[in-house]
Amino acid sequence: MKKIYLSAFFLFYFLTVFSQEGFHFTSNRKKISVPFQLSNNLAIIPVKINGVNLNFLLDTGVEKTVLFSLEDTDSLQFNNVEKIKIKGLGDGKSIDALHSKKNRVSIGDLVDNNHEIYIILDQDVNFSSQLGIPVHGILGYHFFKDNFIEFNYTKKKIIIYKNRESFSVKKLKRYDEIPISLELEKPYIEATVSLNSKEIQTKLLIDTGGSDALWLFENKVNIKVPQNYFDDFLGRGFSGDIYGKRSRIEQIKIGDAEIELPTVSFPSEQSLQSVSMVEGRNGSLGSEILKRFNVLFDYQDKKMYLKKNLTFYEPFNYSMSGIEFQHSGLQWVEEKVELKTELVKSENARTVFDDRPTNVKYEFKLKPLYEVSNVRKNSPGDLAGIKKGDIIQKINGRYAFNFKLQEINDLMQSEEGRLIVLDIERNGNPFKIKFYLKKIL
């Protein structure tokens, strides 16, 4: 599965920090419920920016609100704009951006009329293709700081409470209370990891914008990559591609929860070169772990609450195909539609319906187009002959456009030994490629 780490510590090149009103309820309601789309473990919600409907990722790992994919947001108007430079995770240099003040951001009845937005000008910074759905930006600290926030991964809902008192006290007793620290507008947690047969106390960024289970940084408090690992592309940050090593650890303990055999990524030193770490940070806790809980964030009281959900005991896996897929636009697909007539007649006081098809017509609909964005060396996909840029036509006999990207990724993690048959197109030529899923770790 594509692991996308969207969090970054921004180095903003301006001198003055402006105050914000913050998000607040515009009605007497005690809570609002917002459905989210889950893709690669990441929660994307509908947000209105200056009256325009957009999709934003909820990310505890960033301080500011960031907007990208400008080609999809031509109708947006911004006020009080100035040019800045931004750096973040990745192997590249700083990129150009705009800083805009006094924007109206609304999520249902939750509104901020004086919101700062950082606008990425680089068109290559676009995560929609990796997630398979339109994503226009990221909401960070200023979404979380003033309200009691619930991530209900089972129901795919974000519930925003006016305060902690609006949440059921009786229900709260069923949760494990975890203290957090807020440093540079980001939340951190203390956790114990079992690595190389040693228990190590770690300080981890809580990162709902990271789709991996866990990131650890080498050479910090005896953190070393286990002997069994493989090199891989980890994702893309604001400053370029992120590479590193993937492995597995014995356990991570968070509060009373003991999570067995989670996967872990070790980003390269080069990928971290532009990130300023808070003192003592050893890595990040990502959404592959967080999604196994119902999660409550209470920034004002500096607490996080966790309750295991039905997915808690599901195994952690990497892609057993070694193939990374991405959305590469839309295609017109012809679909047959049967037109039916209902003939009603009375027979001995009974009503009979005859719904035999009497006509057929064809409609053209826009459907997703998928391509291979990366193939891990010596993986089953690589050894079978899959190449970067291959267009996916069918997966196990089913047209690829009938899958969601999340469903494709889930299939590639599903079961060791499963046969995968891909019908692909390469340079206009059709190919059929077969391989079996295989565990690496």
Structure description:
With 441 residues, this protein is mainly beta. The protein has six helices and 33 strands. The strands form six sheets. Strands 14, 15, 16, 17, 20, 21 and 23 form a seven-stranded mixed sheet that branches. A six-stranded mixed barrel has the order 4-5-10-6-9-8. The radius of gyration is 24 Å and the shape is globular. Mean pLDDT is 86; it is low at 1-20.
Which key terms come to mind for this protein?
Pdz3 Domain; disordered N terminus; Cathepsin D, subunit A, domain 1; about 5% helix; about 450 residues; mainly beta; seven-stranded mixed sheet
User: Tally the helices: what do you get?
Assistant: 6
| Structural domain tally | 3
Q: Count all strands and give the number.
A: 33
In the CATH scheme, the class of the largest domain would be Mainly Beta
Q: Helix/strand-derived class?
A: mainly beta
Q: What's the architecture of the largest domain in CATH terms? A: Beta Barrel
Residue share in β-strands? over 45%
State the end-to-end CA separation: 15 Å
Please tell me how large the radius of gyration is: 24 Å
Q: Output the CATH topology of the largest domain.
A: Cathepsin D, subunit A, domain 1
Which bin fits the share of residues in helices? under 10%
Main sheet specs? 7 strands, mixed
Low-confidence stretches: 1-20
Fourth-tier CATH superfamily name of the largest domain: Acid Proteases
Q: Based on CA inertia axes, which overall geometry fits?
A: globular
Mean pLDDT: 86
